[in-house]
Amino acid sequence: MASPSTRSPPRNRQPRLRFRDERIFYYVALAPTTIVIACVIALPIIYTFALGFFIQNTLVRNWRFVGLSNYSDLLTDADFWLAFWNGVVFTVGSTVVATVFGLVIAILLDCNFRGRGPLRALVIFPYIVPSIVVAFIWKFIFSGRGILNDFLGFIGAQAVSVPWLGDQRFAMMAVILISAWTWFPFAAITLLAAIQNVPDNIYEAAALDGAGPMRRFTYLTLPLLAPAIMVVVLIRAIWAFRNYDMIWLLTEGGPIGATEVLPIMAYKEAFGLFRMGHASAVSVSLMVFVTLLAAVHFRVGARLRKAYDTS
Q: What is the Cα–Cα distance from 158 to 144, expressed in whole angstroms?
C-alpha cells in the first residue's frame, strides 16, 4: 500500500494555443466564408464598377473604354433624373403611409378587446404573401373594370371607369398604396413591440395629472416610440428606394415612365437596350444612394440608442 506521502503523477495537460496560433486558427476557419462572400458579392460589385467605364453592347460584344463618360452622361440625362425623382416620391410616399398606418394598427392591437390574438396573427398576412400574388390581386382591383371602379360607381363618386395603373396621373399613387399595404405589417409588429415595452405606470401617472388620451399620445407615446419609428422609417426607405419587383409587376415602369425608378431603368438599359456600360453606371449610382441611406440609418440609430441609454 502506498504511503500517504506518495503523490499521484501529474496529469498530462494539453498545451493551450498561444495567441498567434489562435489567430491563425481563426483565419483558417473564416477562409471558406470569406472566399464565398468574395465570389458571390465582392466580385460582381467590382465587375459592375469596372463595366461602368466601358461602352459594351451585348449584341456585338465590343468593349470600348470611355472613362467617366457613362457617369457624366447621367448628369444630363432627363430620364435618369426622372427615375431618381420617381424613386424619391415612391420612397417617401410608401414609407409615410406604411409607417402611419402601421402605428395606428399597433395602437389598436395594444388595446384589450375580444379576438385580439387572432387579429394580431392576421395582420402579418400582407407581409408574407408573395409579390406576384399581391400584384395580380391589386391589378384586378385597380383595373378599369375592377372592384374599386365598381364601388365608386355604386356610391356615385365617379361616372367613368379609371384605369388607375394605366393612367399617368394616378399610377404612382396606386403603386405607393399597394407597396405600403405590403409593408405596414412590419411597421405594426415592430411598433407594437415597442409600445408594450413602455411601463404602464407612466401612463397612470399622466392620467392622474389630468392628461387626456390625446395628450398622452402626443407627449408620451410618440417620444417613447421615436427610436422604433426611426428604425422602421429608415429600413423602409432603404428597401423602397431599391424596390424593383412590385413596381415591375404592377406597371413595368409605365405609363410613359410615370413609375419608372432607377432599378427598372437599369434593367431596361441592360436587357432592353443592351447598353451594359450605361446600365452599370445607373446601378452604381443607385448603390451610392442606398449606401448613403444606410449610413444615415446607422448614424441616426447610434444617436438614438445613446440618447435612450442616457435617458
A: 12
Instruction: Determine whether 11 is exposed, middle or buried from the number of CB atoms within 10 Å of its CB (0-12, 13-18, 19+).
Output: exposed
Q: Phi-psi category of 163—alpha, beta or left, where left has phi over 0 and alpha has psi -120 to 50?
A: beta
User: What three-state secondary structure class fits 163?
Assistant: coil
Closest CA to 278 of 65, 73, 85: 73
Is 60 exceeded by the pLDDT of residue 127? yes
pLDDT average, residue stretch 225-254: 89
So where are the chain's domains?
Answer: 69-310
244 touches 300 (CB < 8 A)? no
Task: Determine contact, residues 48/269, Cβ cutoff 8 Å.
Answer: no
Is 1's pLDDT higher than 50?
no
- State the CB neighbour count (10 A cutoff) for residue 215: 13
CATH topology of domain 69-310: MetI-like fold (1.10.3720)
Closest CA to 275 of 50, 48, 46, 58: 58
Distance separating alpha carbons of residues 225 and 110, to the nearest angstrom: 14
pLDDT at 188: 92
Looking at per-residue confidence, does 242 or 213 come out higher? 242
- Contact between 143 and 163 under an 8 Å Cβ cutoff? The reply is yes
In sequence order, the 6+-apart residues with CB closer than 8 A to the CB of 175 are: 90, 165, 246, 247, 250, 251, 259
Nine-digit cell string for 163: 384605369
Interatomic CA distance for residues 250 and 177, integer angstroms? 12
Name the nearest CA neighbour of 135 among 181, 89, 188, 82. 181
Arithmetic mean of pLDDT, 140-155: 84
Residues near 299 by beta carbon (within 8 Å), at least 6 away in sequence: none
